[in-house]
Protein backbone atom coordinates (compact mmCIF):
# COMPACT_ATOMS: atom_id res chain seq x y z
CA UNK A 1 0.00 0.00 0.00
CA UNK A 2 1.50 3.38 -0.95
CA UNK A 3 2.24 6.11 1.57
CA UNK A 4 1.19 9.65 0.73
CA UNK A 5 2.87 12.74 2.09
CA UNK A 6 0.98 15.98 1.49
CA UNK A 7 3.40 18.90 1.77
CA UNK A 8 1.69 22.21 2.53
CA UNK A 9 3.45 25.51 2.15
CA UNK A 10 2.09 27.85 4.80
CA UNK A 11 -0.56 30.42 3.96
CA UNK A 12 0.13 34.16 3.71
CA UNK A 13 2.16 35.27 6.72
CA UNK A 14 3.13 38.54 8.33
CA UNK A 15 6.23 39.80 6.48
CA UNK A 16 9.50 39.80 8.40
CA UNK A 17 10.65 43.14 9.81
CA UNK A 18 13.65 44.34 11.79
CA UNK A 19 11.38 44.83 14.82
CA UNK A 20 9.97 41.29 14.71
CA UNK A 21 8.25 39.05 15.31
CA UNK A 22 11.11 36.65 14.76
CA UNK A 23 10.93 33.94 12.11
CA UNK A 24 9.88 31.29 14.64
CA UNK A 25 6.87 33.23 15.97
CA UNK A 26 5.80 35.12 12.83
CA UNK A 27 2.06 34.38 12.40
CA UNK A 28 -0.32 34.22 9.48
CA UNK A 29 -2.06 37.39 8.40
CA UNK A 30 -5.85 37.65 8.68
CA UNK A 31 -6.01 36.64 5.00
CA UNK A 32 -3.65 33.73 5.74
CA UNK A 33 -5.90 32.50 8.55
CA UNK A 34 -8.84 32.61 6.12
CA UNK A 35 -6.76 30.66 3.57
CA UNK A 36 -5.94 28.03 6.21
CA UNK A 37 -9.65 27.49 6.86
CA UNK A 38 -10.35 27.32 3.13
CA UNK A 39 -7.80 24.48 2.82
CA UNK A 40 -9.78 22.19 5.12
CA UNK A 41 -11.89 20.46 2.40
CA UNK A 42 -8.85 19.76 0.18
CA UNK A 43 -6.70 18.57 3.08
CA UNK A 44 -9.31 16.38 4.78
CA UNK A 45 -10.28 14.65 1.49
CA UNK A 46 -7.30 12.25 1.44
CA UNK A 47 -8.10 11.35 5.11
CA UNK A 48 -4.71 11.98 6.75
CA UNK A 49 -3.81 9.67 9.61
CA UNK A 50 -1.40 12.23 11.07
CA UNK A 51 -0.66 15.96 10.89
CA UNK A 52 2.93 17.12 11.29
CA UNK A 53 4.38 20.61 11.01
CA UNK A 54 7.44 22.73 11.17
CA UNK A 55 7.60 24.25 14.66
CA UNK A 56 7.24 27.73 13.10
CA UNK A 57 3.94 29.37 14.05
CA UNK A 58 2.81 30.16 10.49
CA UNK A 59 3.18 26.52 9.41
CA UNK A 60 1.28 25.24 12.45
CA UNK A 61 -1.49 27.81 11.93
CA UNK A 62 -1.89 26.65 8.32
CA UNK A 63 -2.58 23.00 9.17
CA UNK A 64 -4.32 23.52 12.54
CA UNK A 65 -7.87 23.99 11.11
CA UNK A 66 -7.54 20.72 9.19
CA UNK A 67 -6.15 18.89 12.22
CA UNK A 68 -9.08 20.22 14.27
CA UNK A 69 -11.57 19.04 11.62
CA UNK A 70 -9.96 15.58 11.68
CA UNK A 71 -9.69 15.42 15.48
CA UNK A 72 -5.92 15.02 15.24
CA UNK A 73 -3.13 16.84 17.05
CA UNK A 74 -0.54 18.87 15.15
CA UNK A 75 2.81 17.33 16.02
CA UNK A 76 6.00 19.25 15.25
CA UNK A 77 9.42 18.17 14.07
CA UNK A 78 12.38 20.54 14.02
CA UNK A 79 13.58 18.89 10.79
CA UNK A 80 10.52 20.32 8.95
CA UNK A 81 11.59 23.92 9.63
CA UNK A 82 12.44 26.45 6.96
CA UNK A 83 15.92 26.87 5.52
CA UNK A 84 18.41 28.39 7.95
CA UNK A 85 19.83 30.92 5.52
CA UNK A 86 22.33 32.36 8.03
CA UNK A 87 21.05 35.90 7.48
CA UNK A 88 20.06 38.38 10.13
CA UNK A 89 17.10 40.50 9.01
CA UNK A 90 17.93 42.53 5.92
CA UNK A 91 15.86 44.39 3.36
CA UNK A 92 18.19 43.17 0.57
CA UNK A 93 17.93 39.43 1.17
CA UNK A 94 17.13 38.51 -2.44
CA UNK A 95 20.70 38.83 -3.75
CA UNK A 96 21.82 36.44 -1.00
CA UNK A 97 19.17 33.92 -2.03
CA UNK A 98 20.12 34.19 -5.69
CA UNK A 99 23.74 33.41 -4.74
CA UNK A 100 22.63 30.38 -2.72
CA UNK A 101 20.51 29.06 -5.60
CA UNK A 102 23.42 29.62 -8.00
CA UNK A 103 25.86 27.76 -5.74
CA UNK A 104 23.88 25.12 -3.84
CA UNK A 105 26.93 24.28 -1.67
CA UNK A 106 27.32 27.87 -0.46
CA UNK A 107 26.42 28.51 3.19
CA UNK A 108 26.73 31.75 5.10
CA UNK A 109 28.38 31.53 8.54
CA UNK A 110 25.97 29.87 10.95
CA UNK A 111 23.58 28.85 8.17
CA UNK A 112 23.04 25.79 6.01
CA UNK A 113 23.56 25.42 2.28
CA UNK A 114 20.67 24.51 0.03
CA UNK A 115 22.36 21.13 -0.53
CA UNK A 116 22.35 20.59 3.24
CA UNK A 117 18.68 21.60 3.34
CA UNK A 118 17.88 19.05 0.62
CA UNK A 119 19.50 16.29 2.66
CA UNK A 120 17.58 17.34 5.79
CA UNK A 121 14.26 17.71 3.92
CA UNK A 122 14.50 14.39 2.10
CA UNK A 123 15.39 12.53 5.30
CA UNK A 124 12.55 14.22 7.22
CA UNK A 125 10.00 13.27 4.55
CA UNK A 126 11.36 9.71 4.28
CA UNK A 127 11.22 9.33 8.08
CA UNK A 128 7.54 10.31 8.09
CA UNK A 129 6.84 7.93 5.19
CA UNK A 130 8.53 5.08 7.09
CA UNK A 131 6.74 5.91 10.35
CA UNK A 132 3.31 6.13 8.69
CA UNK A 133 3.69 3.40 6.06
CA UNK A 134 0.56 2.87 3.97
CA UNK A 135 -1.15 6.00 5.27
CA UNK A 136 -1.62 9.65 4.35
CA UNK A 137 0.36 12.26 6.28
CA UNK A 138 -0.19 16.01 6.17
CA UNK A 139 2.97 18.13 6.61
CA UNK A 140 2.92 21.90 7.18
CA UNK A 141 6.17 23.54 6.11
CA UNK A 142 7.79 26.25 4.01
CA UNK A 143 8.51 27.10 0.39
CA UNK A 144 12.27 26.64 0.35
CA UNK A 145 12.02 23.45 2.42
CA UNK A 146 9.45 21.99 0.01
CA UNK A 147 11.43 23.00 -3.09
CA UNK A 148 14.63 21.47 -1.75
CA UNK A 149 12.78 18.28 -0.74
CA UNK A 150 11.41 18.04 -4.27
CA UNK A 151 14.89 18.69 -5.69
CA UNK A 152 16.26 15.92 -3.47
CA UNK A 153 13.69 13.58 -5.02
CA UNK A 154 14.74 14.56 -8.55
CA UNK A 155 12.11 17.20 -9.37
CA UNK A 156 13.70 20.15 -11.20
CA UNK A 157 13.37 23.32 -9.12
CA UNK A 158 15.05 26.70 -9.19
CA UNK A 159 14.97 30.08 -7.52
CA UNK A 160 12.12 30.93 -9.92
CA UNK A 161 10.15 27.93 -8.57
CA UNK A 162 10.32 29.34 -5.03
CA UNK A 163 9.47 32.85 -6.21
CA UNK A 164 6.40 31.61 -8.11
CA UNK A 165 5.11 29.19 -5.46
CA UNK A 166 1.82 30.45 -4.07
CA UNK A 167 0.98 30.74 -0.40
CA UNK A 168 -0.47 28.26 0.42
CA UNK A 169 0.60 25.48 -1.97
CA UNK A 170 0.06 21.71 -1.86
CA UNK A 171 2.32 18.93 -3.17
CA UNK A 172 1.23 15.30 -2.88
CA UNK A 173 3.94 12.66 -2.94
CA UNK A 174 3.24 8.94 -3.24
CA UNK A 175 5.86 6.50 -1.97
CA UNK A 176 5.70 2.82 -2.87
CA UNK A 177 8.88 2.45 -0.80
CA UNK A 178 10.29 5.20 1.46
CA UNK A 179 13.84 4.42 0.29
CA UNK A 180 13.01 5.35 -3.33
CA UNK A 181 11.87 8.62 -4.88
CA UNK A 182 8.16 9.29 -4.70
CA UNK A 183 5.80 10.12 -7.53
CA UNK A 184 4.53 13.68 -7.32
CA UNK A 185 0.94 13.16 -8.37
CA UNK A 186 -0.72 16.44 -7.54
CA UNK A 187 0.31 20.02 -7.17
CA UNK A 188 -2.00 22.92 -6.46
Could you explain how this protein is built, in words?
The chain is of the alpha/beta class and 188 residues long. The protein has one domain: 3-Layer(aba) Sandwich (Rossmann fold), CATH 3.40.50.1240. It is 38% helix and 17% strand. The protein has 7 helices and 6 strands. It has a 6-stranded mixed sheet. α1 packs parallel to α3 (57-70). The model has no long low-confidence stretch (mean pLDDT 95).
Radius of gyration: 16 Å
Catalogue the unreliable spans. Answer: none
What count of structural domains? Answer: 1
What spatial order of strands do you see in the largest sheet? 3-2-4-1-5-6
Task: Write the CATH homologous superfamily.
Answer: Phosphoglycerate mutase-like
Total DSSP helices: 7
Strand content: 15-25%
Given the C-alpha coordinates, what overall shape results? Answer: globular
Query: Which structural class matches the secondary elements?
Result: alpha/beta
Largest sheet: 6 strands, mixed
pLDDT averaged over residues: 95
Topology:
Elements: E1 3-9, H1 30-38, H2 40-44, E2 50-53, H3 57-70, E3 74-76, H4 94-102, H5 114-131, E4 136-141, H6 143-152, H7 159-164, E5 169-175, E6 183-187
Parallel strand pairs: 1-4, 2-3, 2-4
Antiparallel strand pairs: 1-5, 5-6
Helix pairs in contact: 1-3, 5-6
Protein name: Phosphoglycerate mutase
GO molecular function: phosphatase activity
Organism: Micromonospora sediminimaris
Amino acid sequence: MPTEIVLVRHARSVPPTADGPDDFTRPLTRDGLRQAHELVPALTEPRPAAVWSSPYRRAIQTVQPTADALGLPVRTRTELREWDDGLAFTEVWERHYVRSWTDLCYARPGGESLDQLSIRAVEAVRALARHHAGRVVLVGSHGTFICRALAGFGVPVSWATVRQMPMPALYRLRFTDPSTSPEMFERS
